[in-house]
Amino acid sequence: MDSKKIENNMDTKNPNVTIGMPVYNGEKFIKNALDSILSQTYTNFELIISDNASTDSTQDICLEYVKNDKRIQYYKQTKNIGIYHNFKFVLLKSNSKYFQWAATDDLWHSTFLEKNITFLENNENYVGSISEIKFFHNLPDGWKSIVKNIQPENFTKGLDVQPICGTYSNRINILLKLRKESGLYAVYRTEVLKKSVNVDEINLWGFQILFQIAKFGQINVLDEVLMYEYEYGETGGGTPLSHRIKSKMPLKYIIFPHLNFTIWCIKNLGKYTVFKNFPWILRYFLQGESQLLIDLLKK
Q1: Taking a C-beta distance cutoff of 8 angstroms, is the pair 50, 22 a contact?
Q2: Using CA atoms, how far apart are residues 11 and 246, in angstroms rounded to an integer?
Q3: What pLDDT is stored for residue 237 in this prediction?
Q4: Dihedral (C-alpha) 84, 87, 90, 93: value to the nearest 10 degrees?
């Protein structure tokens, strides 16, 4: 089958791709993230930034970039709306064919968008595509310099990213075994992502979204490293004990942090899928108890 030629003419009124960047106090990383996005060989995109009531210089940095590139839209939330709702906010602002969430402490090779979009244009049975990922541990001196001279000492082992393929049950099994939320940062078909984003605002909401996406199709992984993740960045782990108490969660969810996620799996994945993958779901439950113990020891 002949490969489709992707449309790559910049169109600020009708972009083919939306990159959504939720951010809170991102002054340490956001310049490099923005530079790597704006250096993409695929140019027909818009970038929507949602600043979750940052208290550092994030706003000033973003507004400087807005002045210089018409593809960037910047929104400042008047109060912190939480991580999940900030992710959802940038997605719902999008009307493009494809969508990608971008973390402020990640970096992308200049061909990341082009190669993933080319794959999706030529493989309609896939709903998303991402590349292999490596960690970086030294803060780079600017994205352009790191592209020209990628030093091995700046990068560590790769992140375990796997294609999410096969039957729906197989896809869920792969996601449960991986226990990684990096798949959220793939390039997705916007229509599918919008159908998948309405989940419970609980611990591990990112996994819920991935499980929902898996209902609609497969997720590809390109066989090359085109994405770099900061090794010491935020993870998708359990919410700290103090935050759960302040949010007035029911006592059972404070004592069992991932109980609500376990209940969600039983209700939404189907009894057969849960039974088949019960050891992996149990591991998530126990992970929550481990997080609770760590929170208590920190007190």
Answers
A1: yes
A2: 45
A3: 35
A4: -50
